[in-house]
Amino acid sequence: MDVIHAVTTATCPRTSRLLLQAFPERSHDRVELISRLIALGLITYGEHAVNYRVMMQTARCWSGISSRDARQTAMAIVKAFGLIALVGEPLRLSKRTYRALLRREMAMRFGNAAVQKMLSDEVLARNLSTSTSEGGDAPGTAAVGAPAFGQSAFDVAANGVEACVGLLYNTQCLFLSSFWSAPFLIGCAVFGQVQQSTRAADGYDAKREAHRAETASTRLRELLAHAEQNGEAIALANGSFTETEEAMATLEAGQEFAYRREVLNARTNFACEVYNSAAVLVPIASVLPRLISGVAVELWDLQVAIMSFNGFRAALRSLVENMSTLRTAEAHAMHVSNLHDALDAVTSGDHERGLSSVHVNTPEDDMSLIEVESLTVQDYEGRDIIRGLDFVLCRGGSLAIVGSVGCGKTLLVKTLAGLWSNGRGGVRLISRTRSCVLSRKPYLPRGTLLDICVYPTCAADIGVETHELLVQVMLALGLGRHIEYLDVITAWDDKLSLSEQQRVAICRAVVNRAELCILDDATCAMDPTDRVAAYDILKKHVGGVLSLGDEVTLPKYHDRTIRLHADGTSSEFTDIASPMKGGSVEGVANTISQDSFSERTSTSVSASQAKESPAKSVNTFNPLQMDASRRENQFIRQQKKNVARVLGVKPEKLGVVPTPTKQQKRSPATGKNLSFDPLN
């Protein structure tokens, strides 16, 4: 076994490595595979034994005919037919069925492994299937090539076992028929097969002529296509004769190359064909020394020698032809192995760079949905983007985590879901099957609208109660006009707007009875009415809600709010003013806008602004303040407009001066543009 493993590793390393990964040493799967191959070999041995018995009855039949014994001839015919019908053919059918079953199992084993690796949570979260492909459709090629590799690898093993059994059985028969002639016959068979393999490998000239003939055929097709497209122009230029001559010359050259190929093949195969024709005489020639010495030779022994010699040659030929199947398996193994190496290299790159890992477990308390303790999240390059985050979300609660763009909210969602491990600290989260993560752009699978609304549950598995709940939620979310199209299959990505897609995702969380719903900016496209309805439904049907997004829209829909700052720190504030909590509109606007700006800009406040009176505090907005930079004024102005749009008030109520038009910018006296813009 060590020698076979060493030879296999040297000739086909990728195939050997994939087989070793799928069937480790001293594993149950490896023992089971070997036992099945042994069973296949026993069936093949039984098939050879039946053929031997059939040949024996055939010899008795000829003996009965020569002796004019009708009874012996009839009995031999009946026995031979019985062996063929009752034993031989059933064994052959069983072998073919067993081989087909094992081929299917091998294809499923390697195919499932490739598909599971490409569609694992970590690969899907990082979108590695396309980024790791060197070109073309490498992941798809590997997914299709994995089952083909399994089938080819099994064919190599099965053909090798059958050929080895054939060699052993026919060798045994040769020694039983004539002990002294057996080595000579075996040597002749091996020598003939070596000569045939050498002749086949030396057919370079014939292959070259075949390539030239194919090139000439391609050129002829191009000439005829060109003449068909430009026929009128060629006729007007009197070029038909020239085109005809060129086409006929190309045709003649192609036929000349084909003729040379056939002649070279005939010359190459001449010695092999002579050997194949004379092979039947080799066993007869092997008994000449015995006849010369006066030893009697039985006709039965000669017939057994001929049959065994031909069977030995056939087994050798099958063993040599099996090398082409091995090359096919190695070609499929190359695609599968390259994809596995690429995925392993990317997924294990974090550990090779020495990055720490976040530990994700389940909560010890049944009332807790999420427990985050001293969590630090790192980006793709190992930099800390969130540091020391602590919070607990219990059943019946809702929490909003807000922050500016790029502060790490999406990576935090992946970390909580167990799809991102770069960082430090601990996370305790309920099972993934009991939670639901909704993103800004929901995933809409192919199928009916009902399939989309209940994904990942199969639409055929939902009951009447679940269907009624889905209808109620769709009506509450303003999706009532789509209820009659639940069974329609279409491109729902194009039919539904982003707001409708996000509301469908809310339906999905409710229908699947999620105990925890994590929303990664999953309501950004909804208008205020739909957003209020969405959070009311989630708080009614879902155990807990964790939302991540901007600081303008989320806080008023949740019990608590945590702010992620640009430096990676976090702070919790529950006293933010909002209409739902009794605060003034101006307080909401000024608190959010100034707090956001203090994070995004690095411009320090001048000494004169630091000494201003309390009357000009942060809650007072003066657009004519000359000491403020233009970028600061524009940012605060945009923030106040966002707050006004969310709260449903006019921007002027928050102190936003309307942008002057071109006519307003002109001086009434001179008609020239004003050189001073109060908004800049």
From TrEMBL:
Keywords assigned by UniProt, alphabetized: ATP-binding, Membrane, Nucleotide-binding, Transmembrane, Transmembrane helix, Transport
Residue span, ABC transporter domain: 370-591
Biased composition regions of type Polar residues, renumbered to the chain: 660-673
Region: Disordered, residue numbers: 596-616, 656-680
| Name under which the protein is recorded | Putative ATP-binding transport ABC transporter protein
Please verify whether the record's keywords include Transcription regulation. Answer: no
In terms of InterPro entries, this protein maps to:
ABC_transporter-like_ATP-bd, ABC_transporter_sub-D, P-loop_NTPase
In alphabetical order, the GO MF annotations are: ATP binding; ATP hydrolysis activity
The text of the family note is:
Belongs to the ABC transporter superfamily. ABCD family. Peroxisomal fatty acyl CoA transporter (TC 3.A.1.203) subfamily.
